[in-house]
Specification:
oxidoreductase, NADP, alpha/beta, NAD(P)_OxRdtase_dom_sf, TIM Barrel, eight-stranded parallel beta sheet, 10 helices, two-stranded antiparallel sheet, about 325 residues
Amino acid sequence: MNDFAVLSTGRKMPLVGLGTWKSEPGKVKQAVIWALQAGYRHIDCAPIYGNETEVGEALKEMLGPDKSLRREDVFVTSKLWNTRHHPDDVEPSLLKTLKDLSLEYLDLYLIHWPHAFQRGDSPFPKKEDGTILYDYTDYKETWVAMEKLVGKGLVRAIGLSNFNSRQIDDILSIASIKPTVLQVECHPYLAQVELLAHCRDRGLVMTAYSPLGSPDRAWKHPDEPVLLEEPAITALAKKYNKSPAQIIIRWQTQRGVVTIPKSVTESRIKENIQVFDFTLEPEEISAVTALNRGWRYIVPTITVEGKPVPRDAGHPHYPFNDPY
């Protein structure tokens, strides 16, 4: 079993990477160093995570002609934020990310969300009532600007994040450079079977974020199901003498899904990549997939009149109003 997916460009993308969302400044540099020392060759970043400069410090320390790792050994992904969708903002935004990450190019650059916010320096521009100020730049125009980055050698590949199947096809209808990857929330409670098939049919690799159910996020609901305590998964963990997290990551890799678990704990970082020394049976893969309940943990919310509501659901390009 390979430990990488092959993109439509021919480039290999490691199946397990380190996610850096919610990794606090002050901790993320060490997390990236531990990950690279543990054998990770894939780091997933984004400017909105507020820690790319520190990730860059780790990359600078670990990669180079006189270091044990060369730049080309490590696959680095970043993303274009919602306030930067205007075609004129795409290249400057990427250049800022490259500077912060201390890199000359990215292996993969994604449009973080299909919907745009108002241009400017505030990442979450708001009206007086606290709701987001939207912008209505068509993501197809943004895509054309993304394609130019490939031509300039600033990025090796481009892709999408949080787009639904209809929006993927919308991009494909105009693309001269096709998206290589779709990054979405994906775990046994949101198995994304239809969307994964849709991506495969169109030559996109899927990357799963929040693959362990994102138990540390701020807007956790007290009644939500806890993925790592799911009996079917804990039984498999016992059988294979692995952790529930390792079972979930292995399930994804055997489906060919790239997985980017986040951790700043050395033992967990090491554990999360130790998944290639055992293989789940086909019926066990099916049993984990059958846990799907369409449960989306990651829906950005704001509080309006004391109640949490989806933050971006009013935008015409909001992806989760469609079935998949």
